[in-house]
Amino acid sequence: AGSKLREVFDKINNLLSGKPVQTEGQTVSVTQHPQGLEFVCYKLAEKFVRHGEGEVSFHHDSAFPIAVVLSGIWELHPRVGDIFLAHLHKKCPYSVPFYPARKEGTSMEEYQRMLGYEVHDSKVEEQDHFLKRMSGMIRLYAAIVQLRWPYGNRQGAHPHSLGYGWRWLAQMLNLEPLADVTAMLLLDFLEVCGNALMKQYGIQFWKIMFFIQKSYIPRIEAVTSSGQMGCLSRLKNFVQKCLQAEEIPLPKGILTPSFWRT
């Protein structure tokens, strides 16, 4: 509910503003320790990224309530946003977007970590689990760039606006595609952010969609084996439907004005 989200936002904002906050039966304040504020900013930013790789990866709709709270906090406390991006880029280099290359002397285990895989006791996580986590983080990022906290003063600019989403998409299409990963991330991003980009960039956006269909999808196909076609097929269908309809559907779970009255 909108009222519940406001409670969460107010509590986080109060904590970061140095006010005493009640939690788990005790009162805490960032002023209790000289590094209190820095610690809270760090842990809060880390928590938002964890929501992306956990909750959003399983429940796509949750990207929007999480993103709108982060967007509002970022506006009032820019340090949280900066640290959030640092955590996000480390956990999911594709959010830069960046495909790390393996350098001489880098062990395979270390390289897999650089690619975003979780490695425990030399065991690398399953590909499906890895893709799900990356998907959740990109969906959260795609929601952030288009949302603003509705109760802010709106005088300043959005701290990380849609222009960053447009830049991400353009940079992504300038990279050589990877099997599995590229098709999934493009589909996730377009499903969440495509409607907002269409409204903002109009004909330029449709040129990009046409480029994806005619030039980029064949390049993804060239590096994709027959067993990895699932996500690529979904991307192809999505782009084709949007071009035929000349419309990008609103993402599922988008927060409507009526949500804020709940």
From TrEMBL:
What main location does UniProt list? Answer: cytoplasm
Places the protein is found: Cytoplasm; Nucleus, Nuclear pore complex
The Swiss-Prot or TrEMBL record annotates one GO molecular function as: phospholipid binding
Q: Name one GO biological process term.
A: poly(A)+ mRNA export from nucleus
Q: One GO CC term of this entry?
A: nuclear pore cytoplasmic filaments
Lineage top rank: taxon: Eukaryota
Q: What keywords were assigned to this record?
A: Coiled coil, Cytoplasm, mRNA transport, Nuclear pore complex, Nucleus, Protein transport, Translocation, Transport
Function statement:
Required for the export of mRNAs containing poly(A) tails from the nucleus into the cytoplasm. May be involved in the terminal step of the mRNA transport through the nuclear pore complex (NPC).
Task: Name the family the entry cites.
Answer: Belongs to the GLE1 family.
PANTHER family listed in its UniProt record = GLE-1-RELATED (PTHR12960), MRNA EXPORT FACTOR GLE1 (PTHR12960:SF0)
Query: What is the protein's given name?
Result: mRNA export factor GLE1
Q: Which organism is it from?
A: Panurus biarmicus
What does the record give as the organism's lineage? Answer: Eukaryota, Metazoa, Chordata, Craniata, Vertebrata
State the encoding gene.
Answer: Gle1
